[in-house]
Amino acid sequence: MAATGGSAVGARHLYVHLPFCRRRCAYCDFASEPLAAHQASGRVEPYLSRVREEIEAAGEILAPALETIYLGGGTPTALPRELLLPFVGVLAERLAPGGEFTVEANPETVDRLLLEELRAAGVNRLSLGIQSFSEELRCTLGRQVPQEAVNDAIETVTEVGWREWSLDLVYGIPGASLDDLLSDVERALSCGPAHISLYDLTYTDSFAARLRRRSGPQTRELAESAAEEHYAQVVDRLEEAGYRRYEVSNFALAGHESRHNQAYWRLEDYMGVGAAAVSTVGLRRWTNPRRVRAYLEARSPEAETLDERTKMIERAMLGLRTREGVLMAEVGLVLDEDGLARMREAGFAQVEEGYLRLGRRGLDLGNSVIADLLLLD
Amino acid sequence: MDAFSHIRNFSIIAHIDHGKSTLADRILQITKTVAEREMREQMLDRMDIERERGITIKAQAVRVYYKASDGRDYQLNLIDTPGHVDFTYEVSRSLAACEGALLVVDASQGIEAQTLANTYLALEHDLEIIPVLNKIDLPGAEPERRSEEIVNLIGCEPQDILHISAKTGAGVEEVLEAIVHRIPPPQGDLHGPPRALIFDSLYDQYRGVVAFVRVVDGSFSKNDRIRSYATQRKSEVEDVGIFSPDMLATGTLSAGEVGYIIAGIKEVADLRVGDTLTHIDNAAPHPLEGYREATPMVFCGLFPMEGDDYPALREALEKLALNDASLHYEPETSKALGFGFRCGFLGLLHMEIVRERLEREFNLELLTTTPNVRYEVELLNGEVRMVSNPVDFPDPAVIAEVREPYVAASIMVPSDFVGTVMELCQDKRGAFRDMEYLSEERVRLAYDLPLAEIVLDFFDLLKTRSRGYASLDYEMKGFEQGDLVKLDILIAGDPVDALSLIVHRDKAYQAGRDIAERLRKRIPRQMFEVAIQAAIGSHVIARETVRAIRKDVLAKCYGGDITRKRKLLEKQKAGKRRMKTVGRVEIPQEAFLAVLDLDDKGD
Questions:
Q1: In terms of CA atoms, which chain A residue is nearest residue B564?
Q2: Contacts of B369 (CB under 8 A, 6+ apart)
Q3: Architecture of the domain made up of B298-371
Q4: Whole-prediction pTM
């Protein structure tokens, strides 16, 4: 496995970004634009064509047979199915046998037919953004999805018999009590997904401002301290239920980890296509224009060249987010010896069989621990 | 006619803002010493800090020529003195160079403690005092009442007091006439072995040390071979002259005159205030009386905020010391604050000025440890140690007795505040000595107080509790025994050297609790629980805890934001590097500042 440097066969992981959403959720900081407006001005189809062109033009950058494809957004499933399904079909042609093809979906956009058709088109993994089972908490996030839609979506996924799916939860939503937190987790467990992502709420500037405006200046601080208080308990509960925390925010039943995301955390080469998508191949990294319009104008991406040391730091930073950790030999040059000794002594980091990895408490304090472990300048 | 009859040497004694500099400006104008177009405010105060704060740090001298009403021309030498208790010795030398002094009092404020102390100093030197009530044109002026106070204090006649407005110039001519007619001319031996009193000196980067002198006997001319008494420094006069107000070479200075001597000397420490200059070939058998070496009274550690600035700080201190013989410094290493200097100052103002000049003129950011005094510690084995750094305070088990410096303080306060001020003095371990009504509404209190309390916050509290009306002066009195202990601050079990304090046992608990709390508020939560303790020896007297962080995660990190996340991580690491590490605890500078900064009352 070549973790650094380009590989002769090209990137084996492809990320495809479809930035269209029915409406934007207040807390989200991914590139997202209103679907209806782009439909009205006829930009959706050109967008999909442009993505296909990008893939075709990639040449040697992209391996002919892909190990993973991830179709994210936005809300890919918000697209009219007559556009989405053929597009998915084209992508699927690039997937190697046994490859993983994930599509992100929101509850209000899935039904039985769509799920079956996606599966038929080659998608074999679904990531369902629930965020919370409480309508009120979803509303705090600015995510207006009726309760029935959530219930229906989960029922549908179960009925279709789609086992390989992930359920996304947001943790630490302002106003959530410990009961709310635990009941979200219990509900998630009862749905029986193979994979659960538990994302600590990230406050974007605009979301923080919105919260201040709506609920007062103290709300964020209260929410953060409540979230901190119960984090360990929630993590414990998931692990207890058999979902192994294989990355800071990701939990999976054995063998059901997201292969695509693991590729990022191992800093394998990946190509991203679509607006705002980022690619890293060897020491080159480039970022497509963030806005749909700019992307369609085929403006050139922003490129940066990484050096070996930077790449090593990234490799360590990403690897240390995972249970797997990182090979000491691979990142030795960027390790802070004093920090390493302190973190090991405190039990936050361990070295076993040549791998450096964070322990349970170490992951909870990841930012601080990783900053201590690495030599950065 | 005697050689001195046309010379008058005088200084001006006044409280801050009572109009000393304005009066000096007016005198320069009336005598046409400075052309109208070159006139600016506070003509004699050269340093920015002096102008901004309205204080005089360095003595200045200026010669003016005045044609008096008797038709004769007089040479008047004005010696402008620093007006702060830190510089009492410098003031005494300036006064020793004069035969008279103007006592300038604001007609609405009345005489203040500092002024009174300097007036007594002038009386000790047998100076003729000319009391002047200034600002009589202002609405709040109460000339009668203020006159009564002055009469009571210095025993003059009410008609001796001049009423002026330095701002408008009203009455300033009368002041000049009084100088001529009431102040005696200097005395001395014009032909005896030469002697000159150095009443101040400054370092000029092109010319070396400029000594401000009053020639007492004989004369000093260019190329004379001279030496100083105390420092035994020998050299040759390169230039000699007067201040007009800029330096003006005259080739010679004779007995009775005031001016400057430049002798190719590179450090002010070689020409100390109070020392006597004489000729090598025709040496006077005895120096002038009154020399003593300025000794630092207040000490603190100065550390650069950025460790890289240490060499710059050393250079800056070297430069300041060229011009300030009373500034003492030696390298100090603190586990918590890194490399810095232990510095000794004449007093708090001196400390503040040095610090301000370091920051302003040398662009340094500094962390100053809590100022302290010098203690006399007698050990059980009879050895006596002088301790000016809490770090060096011996183990309590081997101490027989600790003695601390005391001052005799004189406080002038409106009678309404007498109770409050007495309470404050009591609280600051003061011993009552005397109380005197200057008039119905003003009182002078005399207390013996530990210098350490004054250094801590006495003056600020005095000002606050008297709504700014009280004024303070003090002089050193000697050492007295005190129940003093070293208070250590421990973070996660490690003592933080820079935070140790020597305090009275009765105050240790409060101080310990206060410091521990301030630290708790400012030490960010860490990966571990952090215990903050205040201890005397091994006895913990206060404890606070900074709770551990339990969650510090970046929730998402995928292919799209690796660069951004790496930058965040670099930022976090840089933030950590800016902190000082004590044991495994990272402490931001602000936390030290919060403890060390006396003005910070916490929040």
A1: A314
A2: B300, B301, B302, B303, B337, B498, B499, B596
A3: 2-Layer Sandwich (3.30)
A4: 0.71
